[in-house]
Amino acid sequence: MMRMMKMFASRDIRDLHHLEEEVQKLQEVQERSANHIALLQEVQERSANHITLLKEVQERSANHIALLQQQLANKTQDIQRLQAKLQSQQDYEKIKTELRTLRARTQTEDDVFSTPSDSTENDPEIPREFKTPEFHHFCGKEEPSSESKLPVENMRSSSSSSSSSSVSLHMCVKEESMSESDGLLYEDEDEEDEEEELDTSRLTRRVRETLQKHSIGQRVFGHFVLGLSQGTVSDILARPKPWRTLTRRGREPFLRMKTFLSDQTSVQTLTDIQERLRGIIPWVRSPEMSSDQVIRNILDQNRSKLMDVDGRCQRGSEDVIRDILHQAKHEMHVTSEMPEEVHCGTRDPSVQSPADFVQSIIRKVKCEMDEDTHPSGSPAPLSIITHSFPTDPEPRTQECIQQECVQQECVQQECVQQVCVGSCEDEILESLDLDTVSITQRVKEALVLNNIGQRVFGEEVLGLTQSSVSELLSRPKPWTKLSLKGKENFIRMHRWLQDPHNVQRLTKTDQRARLKRDSQRPSDAPGHGFCLSAGSGAFEAIKRPRVVLSAHEKDSLRAAYQLEPYPSQYTIERLASQLALQTSTVSNWFYNYRSRIRRDGLTEPVQTRTVQSPASSSPVSSGLVSVKQEACDPEMEEDTHRHTCVSVAVQSVTKAEDLNELLRGER
DNA sequence: TTTCAGTCAATAAA
DNA sequence: TTTATTGACTGAAA
Questions:
Q1: What helix, strand, coil percent values describe chain A, rounded to 5?
Q2: What span, in angstroms and rounded, lies between the C-alpha atoms of A306 and A301?
Q3: Residues 209-268 of A with CB under 7 A from strand B
């Protein structure tokens, strides 16, 4: 019995254990279910949040779309209003043109022509007829002041076109000065234009169309109408700034464009000029030239010569003038043998005879030559520094030059150089190979050792500003990469290093400059925020603040550069828009960045990293792109730069002796 | 017509 | 105060 009871008891215990295990399992299942429910609830909550967020985004998008639609509607209205305004102004333009024509008719013959811009003098593309004092003389005006920068208000050809005189006589362009005396002539129009906002994009588009239609080049347009260089014209036409962002000075070209477009005569005249420049209409027509034509022919040939010389090697002006002089003398001789009737062709009454006139040209050329030979306040042209040191505080006489020759033991050689200065110089420069790094190193040491500032050195020795000197000394380009103009600076530095009295001279100059600055200090105060405009004496109150790009903007531009080193117009505009910058600022940044990367990359052959650039398909070569990586960043560390400079120095140091030989006249 | 080389001037950095 | 940097400009070259 007992055994039976024990058996049952043990079975119950086993069952109990089973039950307990099952209960435990059930509890686990329950816990898991609870967790699942919690997770489900969480998911549900999150989904609800997402739905809410989506709804919010939807609402915002709807609002944004509504806003954009509203803006679009406003813009459309603005466009319509502007179009209507433009329509109404078309009549106004006609009236204005008529008034201008009427005004011009009432003016006397002398008032028709005025002095052209002094920029004419520097433009080799423009015929000499437009540049020379004789041209101004023919136009009925005195020789223009070299200081005045004159804009073009209008352009007209002279009344007679059938005269036997040179056709250039009929191509005079009327220009009116913006200087104090003539500025009033603009007053009315300026006031009108200040009230009226110009659509610069439309204006430039119209100008582009007109120029294209009449095959007028930007150079000619820029020169005669805007008084600007071709590069600037290209930039203005491609990227016109909005009217409101322009300063008074910046608006000037657009006002001139407007005037140009409104006057058909201007377009016609410019077309005529362009055709003559392209040779469609010859400058000299008759084989039997009159005296005036002979003179013009000389000038024209000289113009070609200047262009040729400038294009070839930018030779010193002295040589060119010498050639001109020679040519003029030769022509004078030929002309003096001409028959009398040719001499007495149609010419200006003030000209006594062709020979006299040519001699007057020679005199003027001589004067120009003298001015170039002894410039005041700036170092001499390259051809001159082979004879004298530019550090001289006073003009040097021939005796002084010869004395220096003795000091340098090269009297004979220098004399030979003086005789053949023009012809030898090109060869000399071509054969030279200076160690620019070594030169700048020595100059830097000399300046530091003698406590001479870059400013004084730049002004007295190189004719450059402090910033340019700083750049030259800290990042000298290899000699072979320099243009002729660039080489000039290193030759000057080399000459300065060779001058035994170089430091002495500069120290004196530095002391004088300091004293002068100290004495002038109290009067400097009004200069803040203003600058005195050259020649006019008037203060220019408007001073454009310098654009300083933020780190973020620079980063963005650098990133854009990595993708597209030569950005399209569209990219530039997009970048400008995204960064809230002007398109010109963006394009300038790209120009400068490319330029500075090239500059720094050139002195870093060792560390150049060849990285496959995404821009390999761009116009830039892959080799150049490889240079444009981080190691060659324009803002790279000075030490890295020095290291690379040294490697360049090692390469070129052996050739420095050549120059020594050359400058001693041993070649 | 666009891009480059050289330069200036304003400004930042030393 | 000097030097370095950099946006802008011009004339020339591509």
A1: 70, 0, 30
A2: 9
A3: 211-212, 217-219, 230-231, 234-235, 237-238
- The CA distance from A268 to A253, in Å, is 19
CA distances from A230 to A26, A123, A266 (A): 92, 10, 18
> CA A591 to CA A568: how far, in whole Å?
13
Q: Cα–Cα distance between A332 and A327 in angstroms, integer?
A: 8
Whole-prediction pTM = 0.37
Beta bridge partners of A532: A539
Q: Which nucleotides of B are covered by protein (CB under 7 A)?
A: 1-12
**C1' (B7) to CA (A405) span, angstroms:** 33
Do residues A164 and A290 make contact, with C-beta atoms less than 8 angstroms apart?
yes
SS3 call for A532 = strand
Give the highest mean pLDDT range of A88-102, A107-121, A491-505, A606-620: A491-505
Q: Is the CB of A641 under 7 A from strand C?
A: no
Please report the pLDDT score of residue A86 as a whole number.
Answer: 59
**Does the nearest atom of strand C lie within 7 Å of A228's Cβ?**
yes
Would you mind telling me the total number of residues written for chain A in this entry?
A: 667
**Does residue A127 carry a pLDDT above 50?**
no
pLDDT greater than 50 at residue A410:
no
Q: Is the pLDDT of residue A473 over 60?
A: yes
Q: Does the pLDDT at position A607 exceed 60?
A: no
CA of A521: nearest nucleotide by C1' is C1
Euclidean distance between CA atoms A439 and A621, whole angstroms: 31
Buried b (16+ CB within 10 A) or exposed e, A213-228: eeebbbbbbbbbbbbb
Helix then strand count (H, E) for chain A reads 28, 2
- Please state, in angstroms and rounded to a whole number, the distance separating the CA atoms of residues A579 and A573: 10
pLDDT at A617 over 60: no
Taking the C-alpha atoms of residue A90 and residue A575, their distance in angstroms, rounded to an integer, is 36
Whether the CB-CB separation of A185 and A100 falls below 8 Å is answered with no
Dist. CA A477–CA A652, nearest whole Å: 12
From the number of C-beta atoms within 10 Å of its C-beta (0-12, 13-18, 19+), residue A639 rates as: exposed
Phi, psi (5° rounding) for residue A277? -65, -30
Q: How far is CA A108 from CA A28, A112, A406, A536, in A?
A: 114, 7, 63, 27
- Strand B: which of residues 565-594 in chain A lie with Cβ below 7 A? 566, 569, 587, 591-592, 594
